[in-house]
Design goal:
963 residues; 5 domains; 7-stranded mixed beta sheet; 4-stranded parallel beta sheet; 31 helices; 34% helix; 17% strand; RNA-binding
RNA sequence: GCCGGUGUGGCGAAAUGGCAGACGCACAGGACUUAAAAUCCUGGGACCAUAAAAAGUCGUGCGGGUUCGAGUCCCGCCACCGGCACCA
């Protein structure tokens, strides 16, 4: 294709207009309070030249956001500009419609690759990062996107991460008040009575994974401090974390895929470490419920719903036999099966295990704990098929029937979910069933499938049908299940809902009612309570890296010798990372920051925190900073936030956010969480950050495979641009198919839209002058080629004469289709509508200005460079006011022009299409029927037959039913 | 296993329950050209038929159903893609 003739001089047009836009600052968005410059096309369009902008005099805002990229060394690939093109088209369209559009771009520039490069070469990550940003900027700018570059930001900018650290301080200095159901400043936290009265620090108040070297606090102040620290939204925990030796850092649960790191695919092991956590679980319910208030795809919402994993059930206390009152709590979603609980299982890490294990079982339990601890997550997943576990020797009492049941430990019970302990109901849970089978534990059926008739089976109460798995080849059948009205016993495990059997006072009740009744009974007897659990875990927020935001935190020791943390004051921000020669972790496994001894001990009697924040931190609030990117007093100003995030009357936030599905549960959940905290604390005006969210689909290689370096099927936008130009590239990205779909790249397809642009060009320019231009180009040095564009003349067929009805109809049909498709984000069909227009216009002898100009406006959002160029030529020749195509009011279609006087109707006979007839638009049914019957082709099928029925759908079709 | 999505020509794809395949790619034929490229015109789901046509039949993953009429709605399968996965 490189030998083929250039369709039109995009190589000159595109840089020309990109420069023009930049010089004009054409796409700068204006905030309330700014003075709108004279001569700016936006000021002109809205009559605001020289005026001070305010929420009142500015047009409605529209905030269109792309997920900002990590500026990798590899540069842009064709997947990036897919979303960027879509948002750019909409941004340009909205400007034309009259909105004040905010469309910014920036860089998610903290990240591992630059740090790994630093470890290898010693080059500071900032140097690498800046070079990569420069390359990304060049590439993105070459595509002609209408970003407001004055708001550009990078998460690595000191002036940016200063505020990231500031937000961390807000998290650190607040707690979640479940009474008011929101985050509040830590000062509002009240202290429990025992704090002042009891000398001892109660065992019961110690949290799971209590800190590191815990020494009993000695003063009330120390106790208060510990109490506060346990309630902060940012807290320290010493718990097993996902440690990736290869990366030398811990990872959040979400960053671990199948036991391997999401980045690089390295093995991940569980290791107890002191880590910073963010209390996202406090927001589980809000994060779940508020999904209803935002316009995201069902599948994306579903992913978040699954991730949050809400489940309703009950906590039930099980006393341990022969200990006089020591108990543990289990969580179950099926309290109705309590009568079928035939043993209990604690997770190997459960704190009670050490206390209850009998001497005989001690060795077995210790061995098993060691075995379970040694397993990586990957092994745990792989070995999931075969259940393992050991008996502790201890027994629990089933609270509903007083039976003594065995307590086991097994790693199929997770320490991190629920209470870390379960009651096992093998008859009605697949996992418990497998386990019971393997270890010959009793299986008791307590739920039967509902009988076919609606008979009530209340007579079943009081029976107990029990059996040992070992003594029955087939699962036991409830002894009382024989009567016709009784629930049917089926194959076990029976995990569905049904009718309770063998369950004393709840027998005969359908599952839902049985749950209610037994939960009430448990609550009444103080043996349990209704509970809601979430799969969502707190967010592991620290990383052992150099290239991230340092924590504004220092460590000190109290009188008792306890290490404790303290926040630096806001005045200490930003906390800059130290300069290092060597970016590796220390030999002792400490983060790289620990190498900077001076920095570490800069503050008297204190040591700095050496962890840094994860990459997600910066992306949690960048959309807010865009609205007020230069604010030095605040992370975002109130007016800016109110205008850009809250002034549209809808639920909230960014009007349209486009990015890949890979962020469905990470970034999008974290950002919502931060936003909600900031909202609760009164720092932002809306409860949700992103109102409408669209995921663009993946672009595959030409071979239909995912693009990857190893497959060698990566398409570099730079190459495509050289060959076809930015407009063709943009057009093709959108023409491939629906934005949300996964679709393969096809270079031949680019040629198609490129040819279309060539046809548009030839529709407007004089062929001879173009030839002259091309000849001149061969004899002129490259630097002066731009001037030669003036040699190209408008086509003589374009004149300022009245358009024919047919021409108007072609235009207005196109306006309607393109407008409607833009509103529905159906870019592919909008483009096809413009192709239809072009194909039609090619046949015209005269091309009225009144038709050709609006067409260019339709084209402009998609292919802005060629549209601007042709627009300016029309302006040059016809001299009508055309300050800038970018702000020219969007054309409106005239429905009256699209009305047909005659209409073609399909005629069916017995539902089969046979012919079309032409009738007047307003023809009555009798006329239509007569016309249909008169058709020769139809005659063949109805001749000699009786017409039983005639169906006429006005303006749609005719169907004749014959015998 | 659970949740979500998608199945339409050789390919990317269109179709408020009403003429399936718009638009584009690839392909074939023609015009222009010394020739090619570019451009312009024409054709095209499959089958059957024919010198060529017309007419006809079948066609939206598979099997049923609703309807005058189904790619579209309902029920049951199958395949592929994405997410989650011992979450009690």
């Amino acid at each position: 294709m490189s030998s083929s003739r250039r369709q039109y001089p995009f190589h000159l047009i595109e840089p020309k207009w990109q420069q023009t836009w930049e010089q004009q600052q054409a796409f700068r968005a204006f905030n309330p309070g700014e003075v709108l410059p004279h001569g700016h096309p936006f000021s002109k369009r809205h009559g605001l030249e020289g005026k001070t902008a305010s929420a009142e005099n500015l047009p409605s805002k529209f905030y269109i956001l792309d997920m900002f990229p990590y500026p990798s060394g590899a540069g842009l690939h064709v997947g990036h500009p897919e979303g960027y093109t879509a948002t750019d088209i909409l941004a340009r369209y909205r400007r034309a419609v009259g909105f004040n559009v905010l469309h910014p771009m920036g860089w998610d520039s903290f990240g591992l690759p630059a740090e790994q490069y630093a470890v290898k070469t010693g080059q500071h990550p900032r140097v690498t990062t800046e070079a990569n940003i420069a390359n990304f900027t060049r590439q993105i700018k070459s595509l002609g996107f209408s970003y407001d570059w004055s708001r550009e930001l990078a998460t690595t900018d000191v002036e940016y991460f200063k505020w990231t650290q500031w937000i961390f301080l807000k998290l650190y200095n607040s707690w979640f008040n479940s009474e008011t159901n929101k985050a509040e400043p830590i000062e509002t936290l009240e202290y429990p009575d025992w704090l002042e009265k009891v000398e001892e620090y109660p065992e019961i108040d110690r949290v799971k994974g209590e800190p590191f070297h815990f020494i009993r606090p000695q003063t009330i102040e120390e106790k208060k401090r510990i109490h506060r620290d346990k309630h902060r939204l940012a807290y320290v925990s010493e718990a097993p974390v996902n440690w990736c030796p290869e990366l030398g850092t811990v990872l959040a649960n979400e960053e671990v895929i199948d036991g391997k790191s999401e980045v690089g695919g390295f093995p991940v092991i569980r290791k107890p470490m002191r880590q910073w956590m963010l209390r996202i679980t406090a927001y589980a319910e809000k994060l779940l419920q508020d999904l209803d208030t935002i316009d995201w795809s069902d599948s994306l919402k579903q992913m978040q719903v699954n991730w949050i994993g809400r489940s309703e059930g009950a906590e039930v206390k099980f006393k341990i036999s022969d200990t006089g009152g020591v108990y543990f709590t289990v969580f179950t979603t099926r309290p109705d099966t309590l009568f079928g609980a035939t043993y209990c299982v604690l997770s190997p890490e459960h704190s009670l295990v050490a206390h209850i294990t009998t001497p005989e079982q001690e060795k077995a339990v210790a061995d098993y704990k060691a075995y379970a601890a040694g397993k990586s997550d990957l092994e745990r997943t792989e070995l999931a098929k075969e259940k393992t576990g050991v008996f502790t020797g201890a027994y629990a009492i089933n609270p509903v029937n007083g039976e003594k049941i065995q307590i086991w430990i097994a790693d199929y019970v997770l320490a991190s979910y629920g209470t870390g302990a379960i009651m096992a109901v093998p008859a009605h849970d697949t996992r418990d069933f497998e386990f019971a089978k393997k270890f010959n534990l009793p299986i008791v059926q307590v739920v039967g499938s509902a009988p076919a008739s609606g008979a009530v089976a209340s007579a079943l109460a009081g029976n107990t049908g029990r059996a040992n798995a070992s003594s029955h080849a087939t699962p036991p059948i409830a002894a009382d299940g024989a009567s016709a009205a009784a629930p049917e016993a089926g194959a076990l495990p029976f995990v569905e809902e049904g009718i309770a059997i063998n369950s004393s006072f709840i027998s005969g009740l359908p599952t839902a009612e049985a749950k209610k009744k037994i939960t009430a009974w448990l609550e009444d007897k103080k043996l349990g309570k209704r509970t809601i659990n979430y799969k969502l875990r707190d967010w592991l927020f620290s990383r052992q890296r150099y290239w991230g935001e340092p924590f504004p935190i220092i460590w000190k020791k109290d009188a008792a010798g306890n290490l404790y943390h303290e926040a630096l004051p806001e005045s200490a921000l930003p906390v800059l990372p130290p300069t290092l020669e060597d970016y590796k972790p220390t030999a002792g496994g400490e983060p790289p920051l620990a190498r900077a001894k001076e920095w570490l001990n800069e503050i008297p009697d204190a040591t700095r925190e050496t962890n840094t924040m994860p990459q997600w931190a910066g992306s949690c609030w960048y959309y807010l900073r865009y609205t007020d990117a230069k604010n030095a007093q605040s992370f975002v100003g109130k007016d800016a936030d109110n205008y850009w995030m809250a002034s549209n009357g809808k639920a909230a936030g960014v009007d349209l956010y486009v990015g890949g599905t890979e962020h469905a549960v990470l970034h999008l959940l974290y950002a919502r969480f931060w936003h909600k905290v900031l909202f609760d604390l009164g720092h932002v005006a809306t409860p949700e950050p992103f109102y409408k969210l669209v995921n663009q689909g993946l672009i595959l290689g030409e071979d239909g495979q995912k693009m990857s370096k190893s497959r060698g099927n990566v398409v570099n936008p730079d190459d495509v641009l050289v060959e076809y130009g930015a407009d063709a590239f943009r057009l093709y990205e959108m023409f491939m198919g629906p934005l949300q779909d996964t679709k393969p790249w096809n270079t031949k397809g680019v040629e198609g839209v490129y040819r279309f642009l060539g046809r548009v060009w030839r529709l407007f320019v004089d062929e001879k002058s173009e030839t002259a231009f091309e000849q001149a180009e061969t004899t002129t040095e490259a630097q002066r080629h731009g001037e030669l564009l003036d040699l190209i003349m408008l086509d003589g067929g374009i004149t300022d004469i009245a358009a024919s009805p047919a021409q108007l109809k072609t235009l207005h049909a196109c306006i309607r289709k393109v407008t409607e498709d833009l509103d529905g984000m159906r870019f592919n069909t909008a483009i096809s509508a413009m192709m239809v227009f072009t194909n039609e216009a090619m046949t015209w002898q005269t091309k009225p200005l009144s038709v050709m100009k609006p067409f260019l406006q339709l084209l402009a959002p998609f292919a802005p460079h060629i549209a601007e160029e042709l627009w300016s030529r029309l302006h040059g020749t016809f001299g009508q006011t055309a300050p800038s195509l970018a702000y020219a009011p969007w054309p409106k279609y005239d429905a009256a022009l699209l009305v047909e006087s005659e209409i073609e109707l399909p005629v069916q006979v017995n539902g089969k299409f046979r012919d079309t007839i032409k009738v007047a638009m307003d023809a009555d049914n009798a006329t239509i029927e007569a016309a249909a019957k008169a058709s020769e082709k139809v005659q063949q099928f109805i001749a000699g037959k009786a017409i039983k029925k005639v169906i006429i759908v006005p303006k749609r079709m005719v169907n004749l039913i014959v015998a």
